[in-house]
Amino acid sequence: MTKPIRRAGVIGAGVMGSGIAAHLANAGVEVVLLDIVPPNLKDSERTDPAARSRFATGGLEKALKARPAAFFHPSFARSIRTGNTEDDLGLLAGCDLIIEAIIEQLEPKRALFAKLEEVARPDAIIASNTSGLRIEGMMEGRSESFRKRFLVMHFFNPVRYMKLLELVAGPDTDPDTVERVRRFGEDVLGKGIVFGKDTPNFIANRIGAHAMMTTIHLMLEEGLSPEDVDAITGVAMAHPKSASFRTADVVGLDTFAHVADNCFNSLKDDEDRKVFEVPAYIRTMVEKKLLGDKTRGGFYRKGKGGDIETLDPKTLEYRARGGDPEVRKAIKGIEQIEDPAARVRALVADQGKAGRFAWKVLSRSLAYSARRLGEIAGDVAAIDDGVRWGYNWDLGPFQTWDALGFTETVARMEKDGIALPETITRMRDQGAKGFYDAAAQKKPTNYDDFVAKNAGTRATYSAEGAMYDVLAGKPSARAIDPRTVPLAWVRRGEKAVLSNDGAEAWDLGDGVLGVTFKSKANSIDADVITLLGQAADKAEADFRALLVFNQGDHFCVGANLFMIAMAATNKDWENIRLTVKAYQDATQRLKYASVPVVVAPFGMTLGGGLELSFAGASVQAAAETYAGLVEVGVGLIPGGAGTLNMLWRALEGIPEGAQVNTLELTTQVFKNIALAKVATSADEAKALGYFRKTDGVTFDRARHLAEAKGRAIGLAESGYHAPAPRAYKLAGESGIATLSMMVDTLVAGGYASEHDATIARKLATVLCGGKGGAAREVTESEILELEREAFVSLCGEEKSLERIKHMLMTNKPLRN
After folding, report:
1. pTM for this one?
2. Which ranges carry the 3-hydroxyacyl-CoA dehydrogenase NAD binding domain (predicted)?
């Protein structure tokens, strides 16, 4: 059970197979990727290994080109070895795990498993990525030993980004096999595990496809358009912005139709079987290859003029994007509500078309989910987690039900004649208030005692009474991994140690002080800057480590641009200078603190957010961190010690006394800043020099806090000492001239504007140590002063102010 999985095989190099292989490689697992030998090879190719493995090699190449990217960085593809299933099955003999992702047909899978039984190690786990075939059928003819080591691992596409991994055990699967895969899925791949039963489409696709098909059929009945439906079933319903039809375009209409068909054909006794019947117009769309993004046209497409057009389901012709004004007006206000539960309540409470349609969709979906309890999953949490992680819903069906009010929703469903299972009416009659106990979702009074008693173990915390066991008809415990508890549970005491309007610092236990921003979009303003300095002082006095850990969709999107725009408009240069110096001082204060400072970026970590990451002794970044110094987009350069620390990161690996041309390293830093390069993963951020190679990467955001805090404790316990300030020899005038020539070439070629060149030349001056003649050793304070003056002078440029105002108004960069 505890044996690690270090080497894996994936058979089938299609979209799913190559995606699984890519993410295994992302996680540091060696991978063998196989596919069949291409049929109809030319005679000259029949003995050519490259030709015979063309499908697997092609699958890997497509994964490398995939957008969104399948790999954290292209270099991870080197961990994958390709081959074919006729010549290279022997390569699987050294694998700990073999995942099958071939065609969804029973006989080819059975034939493959027969071959695998001959080559796989006796302790190797065999898994299928099937979403529709029963384990019993796939295991026909297999030995008892093979059956014990077999289970379904159902990943969701795109594998890198979708958290859900459904595990389904067969009647003979050894519990140790399931536990070994669960640990691998959680700890190595960063997935959220849901245990499903061996039923068609398992949990997420069963509930998700039902909701989607219900929506499609109701659209036709209610006479709404795809735009109307997507407005209602998107953010307002606590679902992704892609909602229903845009999601279908992303997934692919052929894939969506396959999932629905599988349900319709397999679920002979399902009371809602007709819901899964694909409408004729979607069949026609599939026949015409109007499959969505993969064919550049589905429910939506980009027209000749660049405007988005919508397919009319009645005529199957594209038209200009429109929608019902009444629906748009109703949804506009609802979407602004931050709390997902409050949004759903407001949506269903709407008395117009939007509210009526939303209630019809939700009520049928919630009731269907309730009727599936016991059939597809054992508890409400498995269904909720499945659709949240597999479909990116903010709230699962039963969480949505609680948000709408359990008893009120039951009464309204009964009034509408919607069939509910006896388990739900029993809940109501017993006086249950909902599927989850709201009080138990808050930090329990005995949680700190549990942590103290189980420090350093993998013990699971049981939140007693947190969830209602619908099948048993009584409240039950919900198991919680202590590594995934929210920030509110980790904080100690009744109030913050430090607090102002922009940020606060709490005791996180174990000698760690934690700073969290409260500003809009976690932007950096004067209050944030002030508290960072205060937190460093407090941490040095009373704690052993400092952690900067924000909440929300993004870590930090940079400085408060509105504040800069106002000061620049009023020509208040001194105020801008003081603000820039204050943030420089704050980041440098953290950098040289006597206790370790750990920064935990995630999502958008731009401009000042990345500058804050530079200030940490270490970073624990979420895998999906999109980092970059993007100030040139608003006509500026980094002003919070970003140019200094980005450059110092590039130079810090140079051994003492080495004769290195630092201009080459400076040039790369210049390009990254001047071109506003944004890393698309934490590992790419390492490759670009934004994070150190030794910084940590968290695969599962739910464990980000625990792993970041653990890194801070580890640094404190390993004898951390603050670094000493450094000075480096920079290129001076000759370097400025060289970088300026690069800029002139870009302007001459039409790739950059004159104002781009103005910004770039000021950046070059800072990075090369100023206009002071020949190459010389430059101190940090000198670079900081150059950075500060360049930033303030750019604020005085009219075109920079135009860029700032355009960004504030449109959230898009202006090229002027």
Report:
1. 0.94
2. 8-198
Range of the domain at 694: 486-630+678-723
Whether residues 164 and 110 share a domain: the answer is yes
Both tokens of 512, joined, read 């760690």
The 10 Å Cβ neighbour count of residue 459 is 13
Question: Do 646 and 608 sit in the same domain of this protein?
Answer: no
Residue pair 263/368 in contact (Cβ under 8 Å)? The answer is: no
Q: In what order do the strands lie in the sheet with 300-302?
A: 300-302, 308-311, 318-320
> Is residue 207 within 8 Å of 368, Cβ to Cβ?
yes
- Residue found by looking up tokens 């398992």 in the block: 202
| Average of per-residue pLDDT across 645-665 | 91
3-class DSSP assignment, residue 590: helix
14, 59 contact by CB (below 8 A) = yes
The three-class DSSP label of residue 166 is strand
| 107 and 119 assigned to the same domain | yes
Q: Is residue 431 part of a domain?
A: no
Amino acid at 350: D
H-helix or E-strand spanning residue 154 = strand 150-155
Residue 542 scores a pLDDT above 60 = yes
Task: Please report, rounded to a whole number, the percentage of residues in the chain having pLDDT higher than 90.
Answer: 90
Query: What DSSP state is assigned to residue 430?
Result: T
Question: Tokens representing 301?
Answer: 């497409």
- Answer yes or no: is pLDDT of 773 > 90: no
Q: Does residue 430 fall inside a structural domain?
A: no
**Is residue 766 pLDDT above 60, yes or no?**
yes
In a shared domain, residues 504 and 649: no
CATH, residue 513: 3.90.226.10
Q: Is residue 36 part of a domain?
A: yes
528-539 pLDDT, tens digit each: 999 999 999 999
Transcribe 484-527 into DSSP letters. G--HHHH-BSSS-SEE-SSEEEEE-STTEEEEEE-SGGG-B-HH
Query: Is the same domain home to 46 and 100?
Result: yes
**702 shares its domain with 806:** no
Residue found by looking up tokens 């008395």 in the block: 351
State the Cα–Cα distance between residues 189 and 167, nearest whole angstrom.
14
pLDDT in tens, 130-166: 988 999 999 999 999 999 999 999 999 999 999 999 9
Give me the DSSP letters along 528-571.
HHHHHHHHHHHHHHH-SEEEE---SS-SB--B-HHHHHHHHHTT
Q: Considering the domain boundaries, does residue 730 fall inside one? A: yes
68 upstream amide cis, omega within 30 of 0: yes
Q: Which of 790, 784, 793, 759 is nearest to 632 (CA)?
A: 759
Q: What letter does residue 456 receive in the DSSP assignment?
A: T
Residues with Cβ within 8 Å of 493's Cβ and at least 6 positions away in sequence, in order, are 506, 507
Q: pLDDT, tens digit, for every residue of 703-715?
A: 999 999 999 999 9
CATH of the domain at 157: 3.40.50.720
For residues 337 and 403, is the Cβ–Cβ distance under 8 A? no
pLDDT (0 to 100) of residue 1: 56
| Total tally of structural domains belonging to the chain | 5
Q: Spell out the residues 6+ positions from residue 232 whose beta carbon is closer than 8 angstroms to its own.
A: 243, 327, 331, 347, 354, 357, 358, 361
